[in-house]
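Exercise 7. Predict the structure of succinate dehydrogenase from Rhodococcus erythropolis.
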Amino acid sequence: MKITVDVWRQSGPDSSGAFDTYQVNDATVEMSLLELLDRLNDQLVESGNEPIAFDSDCREGICGSCGITVDDVPHGPVANTPTCRQHLRSFSDGDRIKLEPFRSAAFPVVRDLVVDRSALDRVLEAGGYVSVNAGTAPDADSQPLSHQSAEAALDFAACIGCGACVAACPNGAAHLFTGSKLTHLSLVTQGRNERGKRARAMSHQMEADFGPCSTYGECAEVCPAEIPLTAIAAVNKESMRFGLRRKDN
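Solution. The predicted structure, encoded as tokens:
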């Protein structure tokens, strides 16, 4: 299987980048896109050239580090699937594939296909945690939680923080990511004490680094965890809840 690859090459954050074209003649349909990059890097190293920098870790669709843009689509042609689980069976022999980093002002390019996604970390640092009293572990049934709430919390906690939602949004919004964290922590009993403060802190940090929601729903189409669009509504819902409760007090 012969694949032509146009890859974004950029030596550093302050340098200008451009696409370079390469050809892999021994690709197979079983290869993932990351394995295609591995094979291409083997060729580059063997010929004495600089390999392509890209992020990867677990390669099992869990860690969220592998995200790149494939033919203008974050992660690739298969919806709700991370880059490491996108395979060449989605392409044909002789196809040309364009690979570039996630495009967003909040994700500056570090090198080639690697971007700095610490803006997402700052949102989590602002309120993506719970504070509990240290000491003896509480009894298992001292903080009852319904099965329905527990399952819903797990669904929203599935977000892997890959940033594809930001890259897919024309405005570079992070509402799907932030809303998934706010919803998850509002459903579990340990997160309710700081619910209002969390909503305010995370929303303010999100607005400082990311754009407004475009309301088109591109984010949900590329999310590997299939976080629903209801997470976006949670951002305003949780912020309004905090404001109303503060007025009541």
